Amino acid sequence: MRKKNTTAFQFPGGKPDPDETPLQAAVREVGEEIGVTLDGALLSPRGTFRAAAANEENHEVIADVFSYPSPVIPNIAAEIAEYAWVDLAEPHVELAPLLKTPALREKHC
């Protein structure tokens, strides 16, 4: 997804609430940002990754990334300008630094 007033596409996400696990935060953030209710039991952890923040100069993001076994149909919220399905190995849009992480570009079943 790409947020309004930005150029790079990124994963939906945000900071966890107090006492919220990374998995719970992922389910909540996906619901808030792209209007999709994920089944947390179907999320598979890909790992924790660090990268430069796409939209905040001199900041870093630390992301717990999960895979979901089936496609979802986003219903983008107010802060989201657009979404796209992107093959990270051959992107057709500008990617946030996190999405350029080599381990995320590997195909994952």
Care to describe what's here?
- The structure is a single chain.
- A two-stranded antiparallel sheet has the order 1-4. A two-stranded antiparallel ribbon has the order 2-3.
- The protein has helices spanning 22-34, 102-105, and strands spanning 2-3, 44-52, 60-67, 80-82.
- It contains 2 helices and 4 strands.
- It has 109 residues and is of the alpha+beta class.
- A hairpin with a 7-residue loop joins strand 2 and strand 3.
- The protein starts with a strand and ends with a helix.
- The mean pLDDT is 90.
- Residues 1-21 are annotated as: Disordered.
- This is NUDIX domain protein.
- It comes from Corynebacterium simulans.
Biggest sheet overview:
2 strands, antiparallel
What is the helix fraction of residues, given as a range? 10-25%
Strand content: 15-25%
Count of alpha and pi helical runs? 2
What structural class results from the helix and strand content? alpha+beta
Strand order of the largest sheet: 1-4
Count of extended strands: 4
The low-confidence runs, each spanning 5 or more residues with pLDDT under 50, are none
Shape: globular
Task: Report the C-alpha radius of gyration, rounded.
Answer: 13 Å
Protein name: NUDIX domain protein
Region (Disordered): 1-21
Pfam families: NUDIX (PF00293)
Organism: Corynebacterium simulans
